[in-house]
Design a protein that fits this description.
By secondary structure, this protein is an alpha/beta fold. Helices cover 31% and strands 26% of the residues. The strands form 7 sheets. A 4-stranded mixed sheet has the order 23-25-1-26. It has a 4-stranded mixed sheet with strand order 2-15-17-16, with helices on one face. The longest helix is centred in the middle third of the chain and has 14 residues. The protein is elongated, with a radius of gyration of 21 Å. The chain binds uridine-diphosphate-N-acetylglucosamine (UD1).
Length: 422
């Protein structure tokens, strides 16, 4: 069990050196867990990170009728005995955004769902209109009252779905709903994130008929309810955590081997890191990075995959804070996602935000101070900022970091960072 710790202290005590192994992706495993609602049986998920969000999702699934346990580190076993209760209660749902991913599986399996409106990170409105409109096109009916969405359907009917935006969550919900729909569902402008691919690959192992995986045009051929089978699956490595360790060495200097990472899932980001002055050598499931000079500034927009993910942005802004020159970062997904900038300014960064843009003028070093983690990725960025600062940076709000990072402190301490939980 992860013990909630109050604070993390970070001090730059020199370059980083060694190997960091990247765990499985939070944004994949939570969706794999939700997919276990589709078929009875026992699922063994491996490469599962030890993070609080997995525990919260496990509690939500337990309330819905799927029990789970962790027989050994990295493994999560889920048991679906078929007696599902399709009611996702507020006390679980409000804690985690990915809880919305139970909507598709429950609706298609049970013909009914009651779902409290989901919570998650604190960075502005996160609507689910695309999920609802697509499910309505497949024959579902929705009522909303008292903070709860009530969805009903007979068997869903395959339909051509065209998303106005390639939403990760909506793509995942429609794919999982379509596996038991009558006939063919096609999704145009589908999200192509590696975590969406991971979910589709698990569904195919379970017996779902999905083609176009990894492209923006997915086709799902529905099968009868009851024909899918439980399966085992290894969670795709976490590209955001990999990027976090790259950002750490970028500002602290040094040489790192990032193991069990998939460079092919990070092509655009790595190209931009090269532009900033990092050097890479790639293996099939790893990369070596050398950071031996001051970073150069770049301009970056966030975009759906394969563009630069919004989840990388706090890390990139933190790197720009100590880079040579000025860079502009444009947020195209979540306009409100700049709250941590106030914290960076407390550390002496020169950042101005207007609307969707942040203008970052690099300074040689930040200067350590107490700061707060406002969400998962912003929390990781504060740790990176601490490595870019003179003196001690003390980070509170560590519970946010624990939601998505598996032993961030231990992993960084293991390669020579001055970092501690207190
Ligand atoms: C997922 C990730 C999150 C990541 C994001 C983008 C999880 C739990 N979260 O979030 O970490 O930052 O992908 O890669 O996996 N939108 C609508 N209507 C909808 C759905 C989305 O307007 O029905 C908009 C959102 O407001 C946002 C954009 O589409 O502007 C992206 O949302 P989406 O791709 O759905 O992200 P999430 O699945 O919420």
């Amino acid at each position: 069990m992860i013990q909630p710790a109050d604070q993390i202290t970070v001090t730059n005590i020199g370059p980083l050196q060694g190997t960091i192994r990247v765990p499985g992706a939070k944004n994949a495993v939570l969706k794999l867990m939700a997919a276990s609602l589709l078929a009875d049986g026992v699922y063994e998920l491996s490469n599962v990170p030890n993070i609080v969000d997995v525990a919260i999702m496990a509690e939500l699934l337990a309330a819905l009728g799927v029990s789970s346990h962790r027989p050994e580190p990295g493994v999560l076993v889920l048991s679906n005995r078929g007696d599902l209760v399709p009611v996702a209660p507020y006390e679980h749902v409000e804690r985690i955004r990915a809880s919305v991913n139970v909507l598709g599986p429950l609706l298609t399996r049970c013909g009914e769902v009651r779902l409290s409106m989901p919570g998650g990170d604190d960075f502005g409105a996160r609507p689910i209109n695309l999920h609802i409109e697509a499910l309505e096109a497949m024959g579902a009916e929705f009522k909303f009252a008292h903070g709860e969405l009530h969805a009903t359907c007979d068997r869903l009917i395959g339909a051509p779905i065209v998303f106005e935006f390639p939403s990760v969550g909506a793509t995942e919900n429609i794919v999982t709903a379509a596996v038991f729909a009558e006939g063919v569902t096609s999704i145009d402008n589908a999200a192509r994130e590696p975590e969406v691919v991971d979910l589709c690959e698990m569904l195919v192992k379970m017996g779902a008929g999905i083609t176009g995986i990894g492209s923006s045009h997915l086709v799902i051929e529905g099968v009868e309810r009851g024909t899918l089978v439980a399966t085992g699956h290894r969670t795709v490595p976490d590209r955001i955590q990999a990027a976090t360790y790259l950002a750490a060495v970028a500002v602290a200097g040094g040489e790192l081997d990032v193991a069990e990472a998939r460079p092919e899932h990070m092509v655009n980001l790595l190209a931009r890191f090269v532009d900033m002055g990092l050097e890479f050598n790639y293996g099939s499931n790893s990369m070596r990075v050398v950071a031996d000079r001051r970073l150069r500034s770049i301009d970056v927009p966030t975009l759906p995959y394969p563009g630069i993910a919004t989840d990388y942005k706090p890390l990139i802004i933190t790197m720009l804070c100590v880079a040579d020159g000025a860079g502009i970062v444009t947020e195209n997904l979540y306009p409100g996602r700049f709250r941590y900038v106030e914290e960076l300014i407390r550390l002496g960064a020169n950042v101005r935000t207007t609307g969707h843009h942040a203008v970052v003028r690099g300074v040689p070093r930040l200067s350590g101070a107490p700061v707060r983690a406002h969400d998962i990725r912003a929390g990781a960025a504060m740790v990176v900022a601490g490595l870019a600062a003179e003196g001690v940076t003390t980070i509170s709000g560590v519970d946010h970091i624990d939601r998505g990072y598996d032993d961030l402190v231990g992993r960084l301490a293991g390669v020579g960072a001055g970092i501690e939980r207190v």
